[in-house]
Amino acid sequence: MKEDASNHPWSTSADTVFEAQIGVGDARWEAHPKILEDLKKKARSLGLWNMFLPKGHYKESPGFTNLEYGLMAEWLGKSRVASEAVNCAAPDTGNMEVLAKYGNEAQKARWLKPLMDGEIRSAFLMTEPQVASSDARNIEMKIERDGDYYVLNGQKWWSSGAGDPRCQIYIVMGKSDPKNKDPYRQQSVILVPSNTKGITIHRMLTVYGYDDAPHGHGHITFHNVRVPASNLVLGEGRGFEIIQGRLGPGRIHHAMRTIGAAERALEWMLMRINDPSKTPFGKLLREHGVILEWVAKSRIEIDAARLIVLNAAIKMDEQGPKAALKEIAQAKVLVPQTALTVIDRAVQAFGGAGVSQDTPLAGMWANIRTLRLADGPDEVHLQQMGRNENKRGQEVAAKIQAQRSKAAELLKQYGVTKTEIGSHISKSKL
């Protein structure tokens, strides 16, 4: 029996209808809810469309800065359907940036235009199950030249978006020159139509039990998949350059939306702790000491995380994504951890309901937990940030030594000697 989505008070109005129109069972993978198309028409008429392409960096930009989009994306992060309704949903945003920045005119006409018009969807294929993909040099998908074609063999997983029946193009990273002495010149990126012969989608992966239909995260194999050589992006051996150009903005977009999810979780927690029907031990939840501390900490943490995100957005606007890698990495690491902490507090406040389908909290937690792995695990970014910060070691050591030397000069100049604070206090008490 089809479940009545109206029984789920957790959804926003549009999310509720979206869930109902998807339905249940295998039919969900073929669903395309009408409400989504209606929302897209309305959003486009209001000029709220493709806002993620930053002003001054792309000729296709609608005219918003990264800072402005960051503030808008926070609101988008409160709803499941909002990002797609304004054509700002992952992985299409990153894929459109790849095409806008690196694609030639023919590739833009064939794939970028329908993506920007919201007519089709796309998937990004990089991660592989048999290697440690956190180090992209390990990627094994073979891309071999054969006359006017490239032939692809290998497998990918976490191919987000591959389940959608409207997904028509894969952006695929693979190894085209495995013998190149420069490990960062062995990879290339190529555009592969999703209906190309030799592609098999074996399964959709779940995220803590959620399959994200109809979007999905596919495990896909390529067997002698032939793609025209003209589908190569930018040129052979340019894969790392392209991927770095894609992942930076993608990370900050995730962080922007995640701020909204954290705000939504805090809203749910506030509703719960003030619910007059929930009075454990004869008190409202807000009257139990630790609860208001959770609220206060959540408020501080969300506001601090937002500033980290907006700081990265400003740096990107002023100097571009490459110059803002440190700031982007800071947001990428901090924001999901912050949101997960806030969501977990809200779950705890709801008790059993918090881990069930009767609130959005469990699904939000599962979705955001993936961000600590997506676009590179936290540990990779922390190691890189730590390494770069540590480069200041000799500089700061020299500065501190200079300060000590100057202090010694001043002590001599004023005819005093350095004393320990403890001994000074002791003498003054005598």
Description:
Belongs to the acyl-CoA dehydrogenase family. Homodimer. Keywords: FAD, Flavoprotein, Oxidoreductase. It holds the Pfam family Acyl-CoA_dh_1. Residues 237-388 form the Acyl-CoA dehydrogenase/oxidase C-terminal domain. The structure is a single chain. With 430 residues, the protein is an alpha+beta fold. 47% of the residues lie in helices and 13% in strands. It has 13 helices and seven strands. The chain has helices spanning 13-22, 34-45, 66-76, 82-85, 92-102, 105-116, 239-273, 289-319, 325-350, 361-369, 378-390, 393-413, 421-429; strands at 121-125, 142-146, 149-160, 167-175, 187-193, 199-204, 217-228. The chain has a four-stranded antiparallel β-sheet with strand order 2-3-7-6, with no helix packed on it. A three-stranded mixed β-sheet has the order 1-4-5. A hairpin with a 2-residue loop joins strand 2 and strand 3. Helix 3 packs antiparallel against helix 8 (289-319), helix 5 runs antiparallel to helix 7 (239-273) and helix 7 (239-273) packs parallel to helix 9 (325-350). The chain is globular and about 85 Å long. The termini are far apart. Residues 1-11 and 424-428 have low confidence and may be disordered.
